[in-house]
Design goal:
heterotrimer, A alpha/beta (135), B alpha/beta (98), C alpha/beta (130), A: 135 residues, alpha/beta, Hypothetical Protein Ychn, Chain: A, two-stranded antiparallel sheet, 4 helices, 24% strand, C: 130 residues, five-stranded parallel sheet, globular
Chain lengths: 135, 98, 130
């Protein structure tokens, strides 16, 4: 009886300044069990969530960035990062964590989960979805 | 598939409307609610971005903020919460540009 | 149509909870169905019965409880977000050794799976937040 819907989790906020980044990730992790067609989008300040080398010891908050690296284990393989948002913030793919998943159909070969897309391409991705989550 | 874009923050506070406009495609609609209604005030810098698009504004939020409908740019529909529901039904999904 | 509504902010601080409430009422008035209303982030604070807002203003918590009762709505407060913010029912009080409960009438505490299920089972997901 179950239907598969295309889920897009839209992330537009920076980490730590507010809790939205972390609590949205919690939905993604729990949602994995429901086996829908999942994609993540990082737009505007959301791109900051993926910046590597986060050290939260000075602010006394839990560093939750390792969780992004685990997304592959939760079958999350489509992580769209918007190019214009990165560039506007002086960032490039090099500044972000290298996120991968293991492709069971190619002998568990490691593949990149992050797809750098233009705003126009991201809009097409968004238009194809069934459900849009925002936090 | 069509999208109902919800914008609830003032364009002068936050760039959410700007991002929304870049994602808007033919067949979509934009509904301005809460502080988002300010974007439709004629003469404001943000208003020009709305020209020619399918834009609606939540009447109760306009009235709460003392914005009379005459102050809005042309072509914007004023709807109530019932109209909000109709828009959510008419479009295939809703994107909340928070 | 079936709707799932997500409320990301607490009562009074943001208009989100108000907008969600008026939207929910209109959904029902138009003859549609509400599958679930899911309270996440600070939205869980809509579920405390301990608020005493001024008499001359709306009582947001009671309004939700009344709507839920009138229409048999499923108001779900996310357990993880509730634990962080101190919204407690009997089960949570026992589990986490708290000496009080504060959950409001008509609300129940449950997992994030309820939001995901709502998104799957409903025709529309509408998110109200900041």
């Amino acid at each position: 009886m179950s239907q598969t819907k295309k889920f897009l989790y839209v992330n537009r906020k920076a980490p730590y300044g507010t809790i939205y980044a972390w609590e949205s990730l919690e939905v993604v992790l729990i949602g994995a069990a429901f086996e829908q067609d999942v994609s993540l989008a990082f737009i505007d300040d959301g791109v900051y969530q993926l910046v590597k080398g986060q050290d939260t010891s000075g602010i006394g908050m839990k560093n939750f960035s390792p969780t992004y690296a685990a997304l592959g284990d939760y079958e999350v393989r489509k992580i769209y990062v918007e190019k214009e948002s990165l560039e506007a913030r002086g960032l490039s793919l090099d500044d972000l964590q290298h996120l991968v998943y293991e492709d069971e159909e190619e002998d568990w070969a490691e593949k990149d989960s992050i797809m750098l897309v233009s705003r126009a391409e991201m809009a097409e991705v968004m238009a194809e979805q069934d459900v849009l989550f925002n936090f | 598939m069509s999208i109902l874009h919800l914008v609830n923050k003032s364009p002068y506070e936050r760039p959410s409307l700007e991002t929304c406009l870049a994602y808007y495609q033919a067949g979509d609609a934009i509904l301005l609610i809460e502080d988002g209604v300010y974007a439709a005030v004629n003469g404001g810098r943000a208003a020009s971005g709305l020209q020619g698009l399918d834009v609606a504004v939540l009447g109760p939020d306009l009235a709460a903020r003392g914005i009379r409908q005459e102050k809005l740019i042309d072509g914007v529909k004023v709807v109530d919460y019932g109209g909000f529901v109709d828009l959510a039904v008419a479009k295939d999904k809703i994107q909340s540009w928070l | 149509m079936k709707f799932t509504i997500q409320v990301n902010e607490g009562p009074y601080q943001h208009q989100s909870s108000d907008s969600a409430y008026h939207f929910a009422k209109s959904v029902l008035e138009k003859g549609h169905e509400i599958f679930r209303i899911f309270f996440y982030h600070d939205g869980v604070n809509n579920g405390t019965r301990l608020t005493t807002p001024p008499q001359d203003d709306r009582n947001i918590v009671n309004r939700w409880s009344d709507l839920a009762q009138q229409h048999n709505l499923d108001l779900v407060v996310c357990v993880a977000a509730a634990q962080r913010r101190g919204i407690v029912d009997e089960g949570e009080a026992k589990r986490n050794k708290k000496d009080a409960t504060n959950i409001a009438q008509g609300f129940r505490i449950s997992g994030l799976g309820q939001l995901v299920e709502g998104a799957i089972q409903s025709d529309r997901l509408v998110v109200f937040g900041d």
